[in-house]
Write a structure and sequence with these properties.
The protein is of the alpha/beta class. It has helices at 20-37, 127-144, 159-162, 168-171, 191-207, 219-229, 243-252, 264-267, 285-295, 300-307, 312-321, 325-344, 368-376; strands at residues 6-9, 12-15, 17-18, 43-47, 53-57, 59-63, 67-73, 87-95, 100-104, 110-111, 149-155, 173-174, 185-186, 212-216, 236-238, 257-263, 349-356, 360-364.
Length: 379
């Protein structure tokens, strides 16, 4: 039976999938059924937290007297998920404990740092998938009239290899990937997955003693921190295009200060109050540069030339030739500071450093040095 739905994303028809959490819950349910009833099943029904019923195929069945192991193949739909096609295994074994225990096996990561949903040392099986697994197994115990104990172990053999392609190493999850999913369903190109990761990275820093941190849109910012500013990139949270959401997270987590470090191609948009810097949301780079250039005294033809530029580097070259680069950047940084302060109110100190690879630092807001010092002291 088809488990996918069609949704529209960016004017395209795209197919949904299901999460590693759904796979783990379905495999555990199937293993419990086969262990407690002696039957062999090829498919299992699973109701997801999203209210969508899945019919999932059961594969790689192994049966012994006291345990059953089986797997469900992950289908991420049209989402570019590194876990697409991997097998999520569940082994359910009888014991005399009178309760259900859940742990991670091969390829499921272990939590090594505070701040995540699970405690240090536990398997990286998030709260909702964990509850889906336990509820499903408990239901089968009641149906079978079984009052002994069950041990459930979730394994993802490909997990250790795939972990390097995920955020897990940055989050302090070692040895494999996480069992994830708040709805049980994978939405193509899910923004929620990215913003949840940003929140968890910042939460992890906060719970490990850092109330101040760097915020970088991507690798450019991280590299610039390390190579040009001499700052510790391990104290940086990558926020991709979601600068506004990351600032909201800082307020929610009661951080004391955020230092945003980014390339002019993204950060210049903040001067117009654009807090999601993806080009499909807004591309106001040249409008911002041209407007501030005009305020700085640029000639009409220079303003017109900036509006025709394709890259911010081209526009910077025009500003430099006109002798107004520094003045223009000063005005832009004032607006960036204003919009960041407006987003967080008076609850978090904010500062920003904007750079361009060949030009170096283009501008700083007033609190840069103070917040940088606090980050390095791990305050």
């Amino acid at each position: 039976m088809e488990n996918s739905r069609i949704v529209w994303k960016n004017q395209k028809k795209m197919r949904t999938g299901y999460t590693t959490g759904s796979c783990a819950a379905a495999a555990a349910k199937a293993a419990a059924v086969m262990l407690l009833t002696g039957e062999e099943i090829q498919n299992v029904r699973l109701m997801t937290p999203a209210g969508i019923l899945l019919y999932l195929e059961i594969e790689h069945i192994e049966r012994q007297n006291d345990f059953v192991s089986c797997a469900v193949k992950k289908d991420s739909g049209d989402d570019p998920d590194v876990t697409n096609g991997v097998y999520v295994f569940a082994k359910v074994a009888k014991n005399e404990s009178g309760r259900i225990t859940l742990d991670g096996g091969e390829g499921v990561g272990r939590v090594t740092r505070k701040g995540l949903e699970q405690a240090v040392g536990e398997a990286a099986i998030n709260k909702i998938p964990r509850q889906m697994i336990l509820n499903g197994v408990e239901e089968q115990m009641k149906l079978a009239g079984y009052d002994g104990g069950l041990e459930v172990v979730i394994s993802i053999p490909e997990g250790k290899r795939l972990a390097a392609q995920t955020f897990n190493p940055r989050l302090g999850i070692e040895g494999g990937i996480s069992v994830l999913g708040t709805t049980g369903i994978v939405e193509p190109m899910s923004e929620r997955a990215l913003t949840d990761t940003i929140f968890m990275e910042m939460k992890m820093l906060k719970e490990n003693g850092a109330s101040y941190c760097y915020l970088v849109p991507g690798n450019y910012g991280t590299d610039f921190l390390r190579e040009s500013l001499g700052y510790d990139g391990n104290l940086a949270v990558k926020c991709s295009n979601y600068i506004g959401e990351a600032l909201d997270d800082a307020v929610c987590l009661e951080m004391k200060g955020i230092l945003l470090v980014g390339h002019v191609g993204k950060l210049v948009k903040l001067a117009a109050g654009v807090m999601n810097t993806h080009s499909r949301q807004a591309d106001c780079r040249m409008e911002v540069l041209a407007a501030h250039a005009a305020v700085a005294g640029a000639k009409r033809e220079d303003v017109a030339s900036i509006m025709e530029c394709i890259t911010t580097t081209e526009a910077l070259d025009i500003l430099k030739s006109a002798g107004i680069l520094e003045t223009t950047m000063r005005g832009i940084m004032e607006k960036i500071e204003e919009h960041m302060r407006h987003r967080v109110g008076d609850r978090v100190e904010t500062a920003a450093v904007m750079f361009e690879t060949s030009y170096g630092i283009l501008g700083k807001t007033p609190l840069v040095d103070e917040i940088a010092a606090s980050i390095q002291k791990r305050l």
